[in-house]
């Protein structure tokens, strides 16, 4: 069995391991892969959290890599919380993947049909919520090692981190409403 493994909740610390089903023995390879795509023609194909698909010659029986990893494709969409991406490898060696950086902007739209960009710095934003008084924005910001809620006083500068415990955080609307007014 060849699999991606990590000892913490952060996929950026992931690696590649091989296990023998008969003996249960395992070997952690010196590769930084967050998702195994497959093995074709004795080449291990895997995805990194940086959105790069790599290929490395492999000795399956010896549970070891045989060379230096080679970049096959870059700019692959990767979920920053799981390290996984939309990637597949057919039995004939055809590689399928979705490109993109997973970055976005936060835009507010009004009843009149006009829109205004609130956050334009191209990051991995999710779950934007406006405070009841309309003066503050809460948004989840995903990075390779954190998923935290950030606050932005609309029209008054930079965002401030609302959650800081280093574990995945989803935007709890009710909690935010109580804290932000």
List keywords for this structure.
elongated; 181 residues; 5-stranded antiparallel beta sheet; mainly beta; 1 helix
Molecular structure report:
The protein has 181 residues and is mainly beta. Helix content is 4%, strand content 45%. The chain contains one helix and 15 strands; from the N terminus they run βββββββββββββββα. It has one helix spanning 173-180, and strands spanning 2-5, 15-19, 26-29, 35-40, 43-47, 53-59, 64-65, 70-73, 87-89, 95-97, 104-109, 115-130, 136-142, 147-153, 160-161. Strands 4, 5, 6, 7 and 8 form a five-stranded antiparallel beta sheet that branches. Strands 11-12-13-14-15 form a five-stranded antiparallel beta sheet, with helices on one face. Strands 1-2-3 form a three-stranded antiparallel beta sheet, with no helix packed on it. Strand 12 (115-130) and strand 13 (136-142) form a beta hairpin. The radius of gyration is 21 Å and the shape is elongated. It starts with a strand and ends with a helix.
